[in-house]
Write a structure and sequence with these properties.
By secondary structure, this protein is an alpha+beta fold. Among the domains are: about 240 residues, Aminohydrolase, N-terminal nucleophile (Ntn) domain (Glutamine Phosphoribosylpyrophosphate, subunit 1, domain 1), CATH 3.60.20.10; about 150 residues, HUPs (Rossmann fold), CATH 3.40.50.620; about 70 residues, no CATH class. Helices cover about 40% and strands about 15% of the residues. A six-stranded antiparallel sheet has the order 2-3-1-9-8-10. A six-stranded antiparallel sheet has the order 4-5-6-7-11-12, covered by helices on one side. Helix 6 crosses helix 7, helix 7 runs parallel beside helix 8 and helix 25 packs across helix 26. The chain is globular.
Length: about 650
């Protein structure tokens, strides 16, 4: 697990200083080592025509596999002249190594050397064979071009930006901005997506000139890519498989076998490894299987003494005792957790309403000298653990009865029927009633935070921004497969949008803020392919409990009492904190947001008043969304000021915030 950064430009003078600033901005991702290499690339910039260019490849290392100097990056293949900078883990690297002609002669025992040789030998076709989490830049010397690629579900991030005579890429947005080569003007479309869902929606960010490379996609950069000087268009090498009508393999033993294999592969590390453990089925399954694969496994939980919150520390301790893991827990109080707020804000690479939990837990685990932690993330999305798997089918059945009515009439009838409810609930009911019956769109609407009316008051309209009516970039829907299976549609929506844009991004940023690697066995490529291919009648049979298939697969492995516990989770009373000890921080953030040139000040303050009103029934996440966005603007301004001390005047757009 590491951080990568790169700049491609015809002006060689700007490259090394820019990459060095980028690496400084992400030193937390790799405190163990740093590397830099320049290579020749042919690239078009603007309308100047093909030009010889140089690429500066930078790397920060968190040593997990092959702790020796042989794992240093950028890594070179002397046979071909190729180079690689790679963030992530390839879990099936041993199998790939056994197939390589030069596999036995590799100097390094880690996965990076295998990936470099595999790309040199088989080209981008090997992407479809990788089981892992990754974002990398591979330099092919023969054609002087660079391949950027990201894993199937986007577990690892990769951002790209262009400004003037420079193409820039990195593991974090802050690194792109630290280069000083990409304009930092804000993107109203990215902000609209954030306010709608609590996180920016890929491929957009809140910066107009910075985008995320989509999950399961790759892109060649270089003149030889297409023969005419332009880079090849984006290629999606992975998509969700078609839902099968019948299942050829018995699903319960298949899930048990694939999950056990995933955990076993992801327990391989040359650094200390542990696992997050709550009181639920997901983490209990991972810890139980890890205890079988690599005993004794170290498990960790965090609890706190806090009015209005909740944790599963006691339940986690019971599970640990039953499976035999070496368990440790950290108990925090109100005052200690509140102190984490400012550090969480500083660690943010983009605005989000989630992730404080992850930041706190990751810090507690890293303090115990653990460098790798297994997580149960992904189980709810694959095995139907969210309430949307019940509410969306129910809503579809209701809508089907009235689908013959015009959408506007359905909306008006919903408003009338919901007159006794709050304005926010009336708007949500009207939005849902006017919707079609597409399970992906309905799932998105169930996840919505800010409604259309609130966004309009901020001058954010989906048509003007080039977004769908759900405030989603159209490109984000290209990876969704619609084949009529309702459960599959809900699962894909949760995997791509909520998990992909919120949970995975927060897990990466806030664990790496502590130089901790999080691994997610439920998202192993073979398990994801198998589970998403199963029809909804198998994953969520009628009349069964949530996560039925996972429950059946883990019988005899996970202790029986775990199956009887209600899902509670690790919750923080952020609403109370925003009105109490964090009141001054919130006020400063709202002032910064009100001063943002692309949002009307009166509308920002009106929404803040409505969201933060103690008499309101709104969830605290809405008020947090405004605070998080304002806090991000403050942090970005401070970072820009810091890097300006070490660089030439940064590139700035007309709507910039620096």
């Amino acid at each position: 697990m590491c951080g990568i950064a790169g700049v491609i430009s015809a002006d060689v003078r700007i490259i090394r200083p820019a990459v060095k600033r980028m690496l400084q901005a992400i030193v937390h991702r790799g405190p163990d080592d740093e590397g830099y290499q320049e290579v020749a690339v042919t690239r078009i910039f603007g309308n100047t025509g093909p030009a010889a260019a140089t690429a500066g490849l930078g790397f920060r290392r968190l040593a997990i596999m092959d702790l020796s100097l042989a794992g240093h990056q950028p890594m070179h293949d002397p046979r071909t002249g190729n180079w690689l900078i790679f963030n992530g883990e390839i879990y099936n690297f041993k199998e790939l190594r056994s197939r390589l002609p030069s596999g036995n002669a590799l100097d390094s025992s880690g996965d990076t050397a295998v990936l470099l040789q595999a790309l040199s030998t088989w080209g981008e076709g090997v992407l479809d064979e990788l089981d892992g989490m990754f974002a990398f830049a591979f330099y092919e010397a023969k054609r002087q071009r660079i391949l950027l690629a990201r894993d199937h579900l986007g577990i690892k991030p990769l951002y790209i930006g262009e400004g003037g005579d420079a193409f820039v890429f990195a593991s974090e947005i802050r690194a792109i901005l630290a280069s000083g080569l990409v304009p930092d003007d804000l993107d109203p479309a990215g902000i609209a997506g954030f306010l709608s869902y609590g996180s920016p929606q890929d491929p957009l960010t809140v910066h107009r000139h910075i985008q995320s490379l989509p999950a399961g996609a790759c892109r060649w950069i270089g003149a030889e890519a297409s023969g005419g000087g332009q880079s090849l268009p984006l290629v999606r090498y992975w998509r969700f498989p078609a839902t099968a009508e019948t299942v050829a393999t018995a699903p319960v033993p298949q899930v048990r076998s694939l999950l056990a294999e995933a955990v076993q592969r992801q327990c391989v590390a040359d650094a200390p490894l542990g696992a997050f453990l709550s009181g639920g089925i997901d983490s209990a399954a991972v810890v139980s299987l890890a205890q079988l694969a690599r005993p004794p496994i170290d498990s960790f939980s965090v609890g706190f003494e806090c009015a209005g919150g909740g944790d599963e520390a006691a339940a986690a301790a019971e599970t640990a005792h039953a499976v035999g893991s070496r368990h440790r827990q950290t108990i925090m109080d109100d005052a200690w957790v509140a102190l984490q707020w400012s550090q969480w804000i500083k660690a943010a690479d983009r605005p989000t309403v989630d992730g404080l939990n992850t930041y706190i837990v990751s810090g507690a685990v890293k303090d115990l000298d653990i460098s790798v932690a297994l997580s149960g993330l992904g189980a709810d999305e694959l095995f139907c653990g969210y309430s949307t798997f019940a509410s969306v089918p129910r809503l579809r059945r209701m809508l089907q009865r009235a689908i013959w009515l015009p959408a506007e009439m359905r909306r008006v009838l919903a408003l009338i029927a919901c007159l006794p409810l709050s304005a926010t609930k009336r708007e949500k009911a009207a939005m849902l009633s006017a919707s079609g019956i597409d399970p992906v769109s309905l799932t998105l609407k169930m996840r919505r935070m800010a409604g259309d009316g609130d966004l309009r008051s901020l001058g954010l309209r989906h048509r003007d921004l080039g977004l769908t009516s759900d405030f989603i970039p159209p490109a984000a829907l290209e990876g969704i497969r619609r084949d009529g299976d309702v459960v599959a549609g809900i699962s894909q929506a949760e995997l791509v949008f909520y998990m992909g844009n919120t949970l995975l991004r927060d897990a990466d940023v806030y664990s790496m803020a502590h130089s901790l690697e999080i691994r997610v066995p439920f998202l192993a490529r073979p398990l994801v392919d198998a589970a998403t291919r199963m029809p909804g009648t198998v994953r969520a049979p009628a009349g069964t409990k949530a996560k039925y298939l996972l429950r059946e697969a883990m019988k005899g492995i996970v202790p029986d009492p775990v199956f009887q516990r209600p899902k509670t989770g690790f919750t923080l009373p952020l609403g109370d904190w925003l009105a109490g000890p964090l009141r001054n921080d919130a006020a400063a953030a709202i002032d910064a947001l009100a001063a943002c040139p692309i949002l009307p000040e009166k509308a920002v303050r009106r929404l803040w008043g409505a969201y933060s009103d103690p008499r309101s029934s709104l969830h605290w996440s809405r008020s947090l969304s405004l605070v998080a966005l304002g806090s991000y603007l403050i942090q970005h301004r401070e970072r820009a000021s810091h890097f300006a001390k070490f660089s030439a005047p940064r590139v700035q757009g007309v709507a910039g915030i620096t």
